C-alpha cells in the first residue's frame, strides 16, 4: 500500500494539568481531505499546531512521507511541504495583497532551488501570482491588504500558504464568519486544491461546508478521538451527537447545524 503523506501516531499534548491531545492517531494521503470537528476546547487547533511544528508533542510521532519529523520545527516542516492558515487572518496590513503572498513564496526558496539559486526571485514571483490566480485574488493584487473584506482576507490567508508550494495544507476555520453567498467560493477553493493532489486537514464549525469537501471526518472531545471515518456516519454517531452536536440536531435523518461557535484551542 502507498505510504500516507501524513501519519500522526499516539500524539499527546498537555498544558499543565489541561490535556489537549491524548493518544491521537490519524493518516491523510495526497489528494485527500480530512475534517476536524469537536466542541470548544477539544484540542483541534492544538493538534494542527503539533502537525505544523509550532508546538512540540509530549508523546507520539508525526511522520511525512514515512519520515519522522516529530522533532523538527515549523520552518523545517514548511521546507518539506507543510503549510497552514489561521482562524483569524493577520496579513501585513501595510503591504499589498501581492506583496503579502510574495513573502510566503520567497521564504519557500529552500524547497524551490535554494535561497541563493539563480532565478529564485523570478520563481518566487511566479509562485505568488499562481497562488493569487488559484484563490481568485489577481484583481486585488495591488490592494492594501488592510482594506480587504473578510472573504478576501480568508482567501489571502490561503494564498500565502499556497505560495510555499505545500503538499499538506492545514486550514483553521476559513469558512467562519462568511455569508451563505460567500461560503460556496471557499468550498470550491478547498475542493480544487484537494483535487489537484494537495492533502488537506480542515478544522471547521460550518458543517455543511465541511461535508461538501472532506473524504473523512475526525471528531475530538477533551483531546481524545471519539469518532473517525465516513463524514455522515461520524456526525450521526451517538457520542458525537451527545458531546458535540447536542440538541442542535433534530429528528430528520442526516440533519446538522449550519454552524457552531468558533473556539480558540
The general outline is: globular
Low-pLDDT ranges: 112-119, 247-265
End-to-end gap: 35 Å
Strand content: 15-25%
Q: List the strand order in the largest sheet.
A: 6-7-8-3-9-10
Helix content: 25-40%
Helix/strand order, N-terminal first: EEEHEEHEHHHEHEHEEHH
Mean pLDDT, all residues? 88
Task: Give a topology summary.
Elements: E1 6-15, E2 18-28, E3 33-37, H1 44-52, E4 59-64, E5 67-68, H2 74-79, E6 82-84, H3 97-106, H4 120-134, H5 150-162, E7 168-172, H6 183-195, E8 199-203, H7 207-211, E9 216-221, E10 224-229, H8 231-236, H9 238-245
Task: Give a short summary of the structure.
The protein has 265 residues and is of the alpha/beta class. It is 32% helix and 22% strand.
List keywords for this structure.
globular; 6-stranded mixed β-sheet; 265 residues; disordered C terminus; 4-stranded antiparallel β-sheet; single chain; alpha/beta; 9 helices
Structure description:
The chain has 265 residues and is an alpha/beta fold. It has 9 helices and 10 strands. It has helices spanning 44-52, 74-79, 97-106, 120-134, 150-162, 183-195, 207-211, 231-236, 238-245; strands at residues 6-15, 18-28, 33-37, 59-64, 67-68, 82-84, 168-172, 199-203, 216-221, 224-229. Strand 1 (6-15) and strand 2 form a beta hairpin. The protein is globular.
Amino acid at each position: 500500500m502507498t505510504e500516507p503523506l501524513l501519519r500522526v501516531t499516539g500524539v499527546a499534548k498537555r498544558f499543565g494539568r489541561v490535556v489537549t491531545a491524548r493518544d491521537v492517531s490519524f493518516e491523510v494521503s495526497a489528494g485527500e481531505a480530512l475534517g476536524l470537528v469537536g466542541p470548544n476546547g477539544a484540542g483541534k487547533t492544538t493538534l494542527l499546531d503539533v502537525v505544523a511544528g509550532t508546538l512540540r508533542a509530549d508523546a507520539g510521532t508525526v511522520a511525512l512521507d514515512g519520515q519522522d519529523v516529530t522533532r523538527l520545527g515549523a520552518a523545517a516542516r514548511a521546507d518539506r511541504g507543510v503549510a497552514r492558515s489561521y482562524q483569524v487572518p493577520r496579513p501585513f496590513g501595510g503591504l499589498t495583497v501581492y506583496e503579502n503572498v510574495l513573502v510566503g513564496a520567497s521564504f519557500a526558496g529552500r524547497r524551490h532551488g535554494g535561497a541563493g539559486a539563480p532565478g529564485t526571485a523570478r520563481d518566487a514571483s511566479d509562485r505568488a501570482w499562481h497562488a493569487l490566480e488559484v484563490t481568485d485574488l489577481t484583481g486585488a493584487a495591488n490592494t492594501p491588504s488592510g482594506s480587504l473584506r473578510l472573504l478576501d482576507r480568508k482567501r489571502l490567508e490561503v494564498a500565502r500558504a499556497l505560495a510555499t508550494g505545500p503538499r499538506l495544507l492545514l486550514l483553521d476555520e476559513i469558512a467562519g464568519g462568511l455569508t451563505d453567498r460567500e461560503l460556496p467560493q471557499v468550498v470550491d477553493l478547498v475542493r480544487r486544491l484537494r483535487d489537484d493532489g494537495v492533502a488537506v486537514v480542515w478544522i471547521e464549525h460550518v458543517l455543511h461546508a465541511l461535508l461538501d469537501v472532506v473524504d473523512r471526518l475526525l471528531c475530538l472531545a477533551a483531546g481524545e478521538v471519539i469518532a473517525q471515518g465516513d463524514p455522515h456516519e461520524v456526525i450521526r454517531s451517538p457520542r458525537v451527537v451527545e458531546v458535540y452536536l447536542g440538541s442542535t440536531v433534530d429528528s430528520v435523518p442526516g440533519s446538522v447545524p449550519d454552524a457552531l461557535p468558533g473556539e480558540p484551542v
